[in-house]
TrEMBL record:
Protein name (Swiss-Prot/TrEMBL): Putative acetyltransferase
Domain N-acetyltransferase as annotated: residue spans: 11-149
Keywords of this entry: Transferase
Organism: Leeuwenhoekiella blandensis (strain CECT 7118 / CCUG 51940 / KCTC 22103 / MED217)
Record Gene3D superfamilies: 3.40.630.30
Length: 149
């Protein structure tokens, strides 16, 4: 019950930098079910930070409870957009309103950056996330295709 009360209070969203990779990488690995080697993920994140990417930690009473990334771009179909990436909330913090608070923070921040839209991808098998995103008024606009080269 103490954890639930903490989450009902305001969360803190903190920018994380490439130097903080050991802080957020374990959460990203959990999201990805450890499907990519740690050294490869570290190299990819180092590259991502050189582009229009930001990483954010979600904190509850100073404890890292979740993580997400943000990409900023202009797209012909959406205008200036904030793409939310690798959203992960630790299991013990789920279903307590933390995601709702984090996404409200994202929307406010994206508007401050001049964004007109927010978009994201979700793993096909992650049905709880689909329900959450639809409750947040995201609509499915297409399929994301990936081909290994």
């Amino acid at each position: 019950m103490l954890l639930k009360l903490a989450i009902m209070s305001k969360i803190t969203v903190t920018r994380l930098y490439k130097e903080d990779i050991n802080t957020f990488l374990p959460l990203v690995q959990e999201l990805m079910e450890h499907s990519v080697a740690e050294d490869l993920l570290k190299a990819r994140f180092a590259e991502m930070f050189e582009h229009r990417y930001q990483c954010r930690g979600i904190y509850v009473e100073g404890e890292l409870a979740g993580v997400f990334g943000l990409w900023f771009a202009v797209r012909h179909y959406a205008g200036k957009t904030c793409e939310v990436d690798h959203v992960y909330i630790k299991p013990e913090y789920r279903n307590q309103g933390l995601g709702k608070q984090a996404f409200q923070w994202i929307y406010d921040y994206a508007r401050e950056q001049g964004c007109e839209t927010s978009e994201l991808n979700a793993y096909v098998h992650n049905f709880p996330s689909h329900k959450f995103y639809m409750n947040e008024n995201y609509v499915i606009k297409g399929y994301h295709f990936l081909k290994k080269l």
